[in-house]
Amino acid sequence: MMILITGASGNAGRAVLDEVRKSGAEHRAMYRSEEEAKKAPAGTTAVIADFADKDGLRKALDRVETAFVVCSPIPQLVELETNVIEASREAGVKHIVLNSALGAGDYPKSFPSWHRAVEDKLRASGLGYTIFRPNSFMQNIPAFVAPSVRQQGAFYAAMDGARTSYLDLRDIGAVIAKALISPADHASQVYELNGPEAVTQAELAERISRACGRSVKFVDIPEEEQRKAMLQAGMPEWQVDALLDLQRYYTGGQGGGVDDVLERLLGRPPVMLDQFLAEFKNAFSSAA
Ligand SMILES: NC(=O)c1ccc[n+]([C@@H]2O[C@H](COP(=O)([O-])OP(=O)(O)OC[C@H]3O[C@@H](n4cnc5c(N)ncnc54)[C@H](OP(=O)(O)O)[C@@H]3O)[C@@H](O)[C@H]2O)c1
Question: Do residues 239 and 122 share a domain?
């Protein structure tokens, strides 16, 4: 049973590929460039294709029964992922496992609304499906919080006392791989994935401080100030709008849920935030 993993150069795709590869299941990883395809791990067959190119997709989907679909959080996501769903149907794929996002069920804005549009297309396609709606990745913390912690010992956002239920992308990869390997066990399921605990940004600062052994502060700032800083850092306006709209989902009281869905699917306890921060503590040190 051939499994295709798209987005194999990206964060989510890499985590899923890692788990599928470890399972020994027959699989193929899809990349957009030769350069990325060369990084495919041993035992993984690489294929090069773009979601915008039907011919390339046809080759990538040859003999595929189950496909993992993920795309960068860009405005073209709806069109690009829809192309993959259509090409999959034409190629005889039986089941798609879709990477969506928390909020796709109830937030008609920002990234969640784009993911919801794709979910609706997938559900209407007649293909078998499993949808994963993860909350915020723990990996966002070293990627987006650490740079200002390194430079200023502080991080800033208009998050007030909102809670986020962070989860480790490696745990997400593990449960998505299970659905790819045994799709019948997860058919027509929509899994909202939260972490094992939810923290405010001030609590996150305390946790980072403890992990790194030095004082790190969270500074709550007005949204307008955050917008200005993001634009000044060179972020395009659409992305600033989408990120701030998503942030309002959290400040509006969503995204702080904790439940046992992830643990149940994993069949073991998920990675805890303190464990994760201890592992990545060097990302916060000024020498990083
Ligand atoms: N960060 C979070 O906390 C979070 C939480 C929930 C959900 N999500 C969702 O998770 C998804 C994936 O996030 P990520 O961090 O894994 O993103 P990422 O690292 O940017 O990876 C996206 C992947 O999509 C590929 N891709 C982009 N355009 C493509 C195209 N035209 N054809 C084929 N492949 C294409 C990229 O390939 P290249 O390397 O060639 O560009 C890359 O492999 C996003 O949709 C996001 O909304 C994120």
Answer: no
Residues 71 and 43 in one domain: yes
How large is the angle between the packed helices 237-251 and 223-232, nearest 10 degrees?
150
Residue 44 CB less than 6 A away from ligand 1: no
CB distance 93 to 57 below 8 Å: no
Q: Which of 54, 57, 68, 70 to mutate to test the pocket of ligand 1 (most atoms within 8 A of CB)?
A: 70
Sort 241 into a burial class: Cβ within 10 Å, 0-12 / 13-18 / 19+.
middle
pLDDT digits (tens, 9 = 90+) for 23-47: 999 999 999 999 999 999 999 999 9
Instruction: Give bridge partners of residue 28 from the DSSP assignment.
Output: 4, 45
CA of 210 to the centre of ligand 1 (A): 31
Which residue owns the Cα nearest ligand 1 atom 6? 101
CATH number of domain containing 39 = 3.40.50.720
- Boundary-marking domain end, from 156, 175, 193: 193
Same domain, 42 and 106: yes
Contact 218, 205 (CB under 8 A): yes
pLDDT tens digits, residue range 6-26?
Answer: 999 999 999 999 999 999 999
Name the domain count of the chain: 2
Q: CA triplet 285, 287, 288: central angle to 5 degrees?
A: 70
Domain shared by 132 and 226, yes or no: no
CB 42 within 8 A of CB 24: no
| Domain housing 148 | 140-164+196-256+271-284
